[in-house]
Amino acid sequence: MDSSIIISIESSNDFSDEDCISLQLMRNKEYPTVLEPTTFERTEKWLKYPDRRTQYITARDVKFKLPELIGILTFAEHIEHPRSLWFSMVIKREYQRQGIGKKMLDIAKTHTDELRAFCVEHDKYVKEDGSTYFAPLDFYKKNGFIVGDKTLKTEIGLECVEIIWRKEI
Ligand SMILES: CC(C)(COP(=O)(O)OP(=O)(O)OC[C@H]1O[C@@H](n2cnc3c(N)ncnc32)[C@H](O)[C@@H]1OP(=O)(O)O)[C@@H](O)C(=O)NCCC(=O)NCCS
Known about the structure:
- With 169 residues, the protein is an alpha+beta fold.
- The chain is built from 4 helices and 9 strands, in the order βααβββαβββαββ.
- The strands form 2 sheets. Strands 1-2-3-4-5-9-8 form a 7-stranded mixed beta sheet. Strands 6-7 form a two-stranded antiparallel sheet.
- It starts with 6 loop residues before the first strand and ends with a strand.
- Residues 30-31, 89-91, 96-102, 117, 119, 134, 136, 138-139, 142 line the site of coenzyme A.
């Protein structure tokens, strides 16, 4: 990592319009194009007026006067598994593969005994710029997740598997 980059990772629920723009761009650039691009309005609703149970872990590059949002992990109670947290995460491209995702997951793990999410399994989707969306399943396996029984097949053609992490007792 460039030594001039200082990342601050923390729990947060205070978001600016700039954060909403950063997250909107991040999601649209980093997720597979089968997902419809998200709008500023939807991102704003999600960040500023969430369900009261939703929590956020943010990563910011603090070299800027207004620290830029460069990653977010969001989690909430799982409806079917009350003791489990359901999460999603995304990190800006230039900051990926520098250990930030692992650090954010490590913080999420301190909030619960069980984390669950849906994850793409194969490298068969493309991103907005036409490059391959590399399935992050190995990232999660490296971080102690296993593949669960559930699969997700949406009408828009996105296929995912459930991934689960449980605290070792
Ligand atoms: C997946 C993601 C959250 C991982 O965060 P990260 O900060 O890049 O990951 P870390 O640096 O902590 O760990 C990276 C390691 O995980 C592994 N890995 C496997 N698949 C990976 C992938 N698709 N992207 C990043 N790392 C991956 C690699 O071994 C990598 O180590 P290496 O660089 O030495 O090979 C991030 O890359 C991202 O936002 N990707 C796009 C959006 C996305 O897929 N979100 C998850 C939806 S379920």
